[in-house]
Every structure is written in C-alpha cells, then in structure tokens.
C-alpha cells in the first residue's frame, strides 16, 4: 500500500466509565478514541485505538447548587456522556457536593502553579504530541483564539519535564512564544498566562534559567505585573463609582452586573499574577537577578499585591517577600512602606500556610527596631499572644521575644494574656531542657516591675521562685517576695543540677540585696562556702557560672560575719588567682574588685587583704584601667585602704602623683615655650613644687571643700553617713563638687549595692542588661 492511497481519517469516540476526581470538584470521564485511515474508496486502510481521559471541572459547585440543573448542563455540553447516564451524573454531583473538605484543604495548601489549571474555559479535545510541535508553532501566527490554542498545546508538553530538553532545542517555538507574549499580552490575559506558564515550567529547573534570561521574560513579567496592578486600581475606582451611582438612583442592577464582571476579570488576573510572580521567585535564586528585580521596584509591587483576597496568591507573595527580607536593602524598602500594617491584617487567618509564612516574614522584620515599633502600633501584640496556644506558637513567641527586648514595650505585655500563657508553658514543660526562646522571653518580661508582679501572683509565686528561677531585677517590693524562697534557691546550688539551672539560682540570689536577709545563716545552713570556693578555680566550670559565684560572694560580703567567714576559708587568695587568669575579661575584673571593695569595709577582712595578700598592689595596677567602671570601683577601694594603712597610703599617693605628673610633664615637653612662666618656677629657678613636697600635701589628693580635715583622715563614721544617703550624687556616688582636679574621687563614696555603683532596680548594669 502506498501512502498516496490514504485519503480520509475517521475518528470514533466511545464513552467509558464515569467517576469523581479524588481531590478536585470535578468529574473524570474515561473514553476510547478509534482512529481509522480510509482509502479513497472508503475502505479502512489503517486503524489505531487509544484510551483517553477528560476532566470536567465544576468550579461553581457549592452547597447551594441545584444538582439536577447542573447535571443536565454537564450532559448537554459533554458529548462523551450519553443522556441516558443523567441519573448517574446527578448521583456523582451529589456526592461531590457533600464530600468532606479535607481533600480540598490539602489541595489548597499546594501553591505551585504547575498543580493548577492555567486558566478557566479552555479544554482540549486532543492530546498534545511532541511530534506535532511545528503545527502548534504555526498556530502562534494566527488570530488570538488560535494563538491561545497553540500556546495551550505547547504548555501541555512543557508540563511534562521529559519534554523540556527537546523543547529547549526548538528555538523557533520558544522564539515565537516570546514574540507573541511581547506583542500580544495586553490583548488577552489567557494568552499571556499560558505563555508565561510555559516559561515557568522551564524556570523550575536552574539549568534553564539562562534560556529565560535570553528571551528577557523576567523583565517582561515585571512590566506585566506593574500594568495589571494599575488596572486593578482602575477597576476598583470604576466599581466604587458605579456603586455610588446606583445608590443615588436606587438601582442595583448596574452595580451587580459590574461586580460580576469584576470578579471574572479578577480571577483571571490573579492567575496571571500568580504564575508571573512564581516565575520571578524561581529566577531570584540568583542574587544578581534578584538585585535587578529590586532595582525595578519588586518590593513595592509585592507589598501592593498584599491587598488581594486570594489566599493562594498571598502565600506566594508573602513567601517572595520573606526570601527578599534576608537582605538589608530589601528590608529597608519594606520599612519605607506599609508592609507591617498589611501583614498585620493576615494575622490570624484560617489558611495555615499563609499564617506560617506571614509569621516567618514578621520574624525576619522584627530584627529591626523601627519595624518592631510598627508591629506594636499595628496591634500585633494581642494577635501574636492568641497564637501561643496554637501550632504557630514557636514563631509567635520568637517575635514577641524580639518585641520584649525594647524597654518601652515591656509594660504593654501586662495588658494582654501573654504572661499567664507563657508562665503556663514554662511550668508545663516536662523536658529536661527548657526552650531557650521561652526562658529568654520570660527573663525579658521579668525585667519590668508590673510583669514581675503578675508572674509572682497566686500559685505562680512559689513556682516562679523555685522551679524555674526567673531572675527578677526590680525594686524592693518585688525582691521581698523572694525572701520566703531563699532556702529553696540555695538548696539547689549544692545539688548536682544542670549548670544553666544553677546559674539562674545564683543570679537570683545575687540580686537579693535585702537588709533583713541573714546571709550567714544561709551560708551555714546550706554549706555554700566550700561550693563557692571550689568554683572560683579557673577552669572548674563554665565562665558564666564562675562569674555568678563571684557576684554572689560580692553580695554576701556586705554582711560582716559573712565576710569574715569567707576570708577564713581562703577565698581572697582564690579571687586573686582568678583575677590573674581572667585579667582580660572586664566583667570578671570589675566584679572581683567589687568583692575587695565590700571586704575592706570590715576590719577582719580588711586586715587580711592589706597584710596577708597583694590585693592592694593589683588594685594600684588597675587604677588606670581603660574601663571607666573598673577605675571607679578600684579608686574607691584604694581610698579606704589608704585611710587605714599608712604605708599603703603613701604608695597609693605616690602612684597617683606619678600618673598625673607624667601627664603634666608630657604636656610641658610638647609645648613650645618662648619664655618661662613665673608661676611654674620659684625665684631660684627651681620647680615650685617638688615630689617630696606633694607627698606631704594630702589636700592635693582630697579636695574636701570644707568636709574633710586637712590631714586627710576619714573615720568609719564618715562612710556610715554616706550609706545613709548624705552628700551623695546619682547612683550612690558623690556629686561632681566632691572630685579633685584630676577627676578622681575626692572622698570615699557611699557603698553601692553592685560592682558598678547602681542598684539593681535602676537597670544600668555594665555588660549585663536585663534583656539577654
């Protein structure tokens, strides 16, 4: 038989089974196609049979749909279903109408465009074949309907990854698609959506990104998105005008007609936006491409799209923004516009994926102080609090933790249900290790007086003090709540508890600077002195624990009997050894010097420090430390030592003179003097003041201003006056009028409650803030 003998092609369709789609609102029709090639005489020459499938999607099916009418419409429009099967169609439609929505919800979570139809209203009567690609390309040169058909056939091929390599080799087809998109995208949304969808299939694989860049599809998509957003604004304006006009004329027909048309246009536009944005999201894997998008204002376009109602589109937009937000420039772009305000409208929402990705974007943005402020202004605090009992609680808590770092927002948590919920989460935690985010959040909240009081109210009072040991650095009222639980806290220190837990116990006790607390009894009852001494050895534990031990010793050393007990145990040499080992760590140095400061107030420990150790020598070396707080505590300690030991007093005076005189000599040497200044030299040409003269002039080291005798002697009663608050400036130190010309302390200051001269409730710790 010759090929020329073939004259006719005859197709015969035979209907098969009818069933419902497993996940979509759709009917699946199985049918058979029999193709026969006939000779000119009409006799069959060659035949082939193929099983096919058609999906009838029922977008309008809902609980109010008239099943009988819809079934008749399906049978009339689908030639593959015989009218005799109308009852069967009705039964299947009824099943779809009442089927549980679990499958729908599962499909709803899928955000990839490849899992959805490119647009509504297009159904192919034939199956696309890669061997017919040239015929499909020919359709791209016809009118718009034929172009849509040709692009749809190519799309069906592109959705199969096995065909992409072959399509890649067909430059004619890809060039024609790019040309049609560039020239005709404004004429048909369906055409634009279908062609972009083809290129999206390529964008799912990084090796094909060069192809999309070659045809400049990304830049074209940016232009299309910008144009469509402008059209959306125009539609909104026109719809509002019609609504006002109908209200004035008491007619609703025009408005309802326009609204129906608007919803149809909106559905197609959102499909176009979705596939175009997803293509750009894939291309943004390359940071250079992402930078080009930023230069074309991608952030503003995405934020503008947040006004839409389509949850699938919003998931994509927010995901894109989350990816962009990791770069500072993009985050700054988001800060300039109302990004947070629009995201706040999406919290909470029923769509789990949308809620999750929105919270993750907010978490990225919450690292910025200004954006945290906007979150509070957008009323996100109570919204995030409501999510602490749900699946998203971990992300919500991280955002709340960031907000709680700002002192100005801490008090706002007291007016929400956040604190009771967080405390319940804390106490319900049965794991050995508590989440770092949870305990850190609690510590931040506890840094506010009102929050701490709420934490300690009712049944929380005991739990707060014993089970979880949240450090509370507030005023006396809150501290006194812990007096009843000092024993419980101290009991935990000697036990083999986790180090982090012991650190919290020590930190809490260290902050209890309460006059009525008998520290001697606590140390003896729980045998804490050996523990404290053993943990002063360098390397005996983590630095955080050793530091808390030092702070604890400083607190209990305020008590005379405790200071004596510690001195007899040999803790002072251990502190000096630790000082040598940690001399580069300002925090350690300051806290150890503070312990010495507390101990020199007591005669027993003062004698040990002055006569049996070289602590004063170390303090003299630290007089000129670069850290201002260390210098301050060191100077105050040395002033007391100088008053009670003449020999050390002379050494301290000599060192002060040497330091200040060296600065003065350096100034003199660097100064070009044309003639000698009379006030610097006497009549005999000798310097006006000699070293020996200055050392005999204590008034040059203690600017008393009439308060201290000329001989520089200071009695212990003088310090008592300072402890009672007399002659003190802010933070427990003397006012500036009590300093000498070198900025040194002219008198010994009041005894501060911490190493830095600040009370814990004043929240001015150096390097140890309330928010960790």
TrEMBL record:
Spans of repeat ARM: 570-614
One Gene Ontology cellular component annotation held by this UniProt entry: ciliary transition zone
Coiled coil: 241-268
Keywords assigned by UniProt, alphabetized: Coiled coil
Superkingdom of origin: Eukaryota
A Pfam family that the UniProt record links to this protein: KAP
A GO molecular function held by the record: kinesin binding
Tagged with keyword Coiled coil: yes
Gene Ontology biological-process annotations: animal organ development; cilium organization; microtubule-based movement
InterPro entries in the record: ARM-like (IPR011989), ARM-type_fold (IPR016024), Armadillo (IPR000225), KAP3 (IPR008658)
PANTHER family associated with the record: KINESIN-ASSOCIATED PROTEIN 3 (PTHR15605:SF2), KINESIN-ASSOCIATED PROTEINS (PTHR15605)
Protein name as annotated: Kinesin-associated protein 3a
